[in-house]
Amino acid sequence: MRPDEPAPWTPPRTEPGQPRQVRRILKLFRPYRGRLAVVGLLVGAASLVSVVTPFLLKEILDTAIPEGRTGLLSLLALGMILSAVLTSVFGVLQTLISTTVGQRVMHDLRTAVYGRLQRMSLAFFTRTRTGEVQSRIANDIGGMQATVTSTATSLVSNLTSVVATIVAMVALDWRLTVVSLLLLPLFVWISRRVGEERKKITTQRQKQMAVMAATVTESLSVSGIVLGRTMGRADSLTKSFAEESEGLVDLEVRSNMAGRWRMAVISIVMAAMPAFIYWTAGLALQFGGPAVSIGTLVAFVSLQQGLFRPTVSLLSTGVQIQTSLALFQRIFEYLDLPIDITEPERPIHLDQVKGEVRFENVAFQYDDKSGPILDGIDITVPAGGSLAVVGPTGAGKSTFSHLVPRLYDVTGGRVTLDGVDVRDLDFDTLARAIGVVSQETYLFHASVADNLRFAKPDATDEELSAAATAAQIHDHIASLPDGYDTVVGERGHRFSGGEKQRLAIARTILRDPPVLILDEATSALDTRTERAVQEAIDALSANRTTLTIAHRLSTIRGADQIVVLDSGRAVERGTHEELLEQGGRYAALVHRDAQLEPTRS
């Protein structure tokens, strides 16, 4: 880890109480309470209709058939058919609405997490593996799909069915009902234990999936493939991935088998309950107890069998909810991340930005545990002027450049744009005013035109051509078979380093910012390519305030002022000629640069 980088990010160690977490989950459904009310009505109607069938069956067995009443038999049979039809229709409508609500909640969660991450400071992303972020959005939220789309409705549906069925059973025979429900508390206790066990395993499983996602993202990117093959580590990486996958296999098996035998015992006992009821009714009759009619007994067993499915489902739903709490907790960790960089309550908007940048006694450090990265920086760059910052690795140069667009916020002093603290400006003003071209050019896996229009979505083809011409890349693009429709490939790997840099410059020209930050934009290029890119940079820098973080000193000799950073402090400043005359650190850097120059050509 470099001296000026923050420590790796770890999730906050907060364990929200389960009642609070449940309330927070329920809050996600609040915008859809109208639709959920409709689902509740459908569930209630379906439950009531379904318990009517055993009573119709009782009348058929005790009255219609023994008394030979064909008309009543036909009416009761038609009622049973109608009950089945209504139950099915209500179920389909209930599933449609509940699934729609669930998917909307999933959408809200994904959007909320993505939006939260978009507002995080650069420090968070330098400390977090990309695969970890992707896993939270894809795997964790995806793993909650069953819960938010069907579990909530299943809970209400099964609970309503259980209550309605028990009421109907009591109406038929309260004594048999008591016998049927004796073991229910034990079943509830078992399901809670199983749920707690699966919740712990699910937390471990999701962490392992995040590790695997990070490994895949890093090792199967274009850069990762190139590095792995050229270093002869392809087999080693495969072996490492296999070990991580093996760990996931064990967790998946444990997750699926957790409490499986205990739940199987519940299923066996409940499936055997009809035989127990027949046996109990027979013994009661034999020992002089109250007689139970055949119709009542059959209807009661039918209700009990109807009770079996929702009860087991209800217990399983409880297990599923407890398991999902682990996923919700991981999502809430991201939603609860503190946002370091925010707009003030009343941000200042600048319609016209001249471009004066000023550092006033600026200090910066990542946290209380790390030392200062910058300390006591006082620099003024007039509108249209140029500043170059040089210094050894770890001197704080890149951090210095990140303070102007608020990728980081100062921890002491202030940075101003046209006399206004950048922390008081709205994000739109900062985005319009400041353009950044860095050493690590990022291009999307899209066409050249789409990559350029990322800076200006409504740019015309003529504006694209003009920007590319200014960046000295138009002729190359035009020579490609698909021209501006050419797909650049993952991270722009179909283009050379110099070509990618010029595409980035064209993109910035299209945005036309009054302040330009060049963060070692040519340090990775050979001398010949550097000259071409430097010409494009010169065209871009004209009439703009330019801050250049320089690695090669030959590119900054014409800067209005040069500042040498060392250990976070400005130890020298002046023009190229003035600093050479001083014979200090800048002169030593120029001498070293001159010795290395032949090796770069």
3D structure, described in words:
With 601 residues, the chain is of the alpha/beta class. It folds into 2 domains: 15-170 and 315-340, Up-down Bundle (ABC transporter transmembrane region fold), CATH 1.20.1560.10; 357-596, 3-Layer(aba) Sandwich (Rossmann fold). 62% of the residues lie in helices and 9% in strands. The protein is built from 21 helices and 10 strands. The chain has helices spanning 18-28, 33-64, 70-118, 122-127, 130-143, 145-172, 174-180, 184-219, 222-230, 234-257, 260-286, 294-335, 397-403, 427-433, 448-453, 461-470, 474-479, 497-511, 527-541, 576-582, 585-596, and strands at residues 357-364, 374-381, 386-390, 412-417, 420-421, 434-438, 515-519, 545-549, 561-566, 569-574. The strands form 2 sheets. It has a 6-stranded mixed sheet, with helices on both faces. Strands 2-1-4-5 form a 4-stranded antiparallel sheet, with helices on one face. A hairpin with a 2-residue loop joins strand 4 (412-417) and strand 5 (420-421). Helix 2 packs parallel to helix 6 (145-172). It is found in: Cell inner membrane. It holds the Pfam family ABC_membrane. GO terms for molecular function: ABC-type oligopeptide transporter activity; ATP binding; ATP hydrolysis activity.
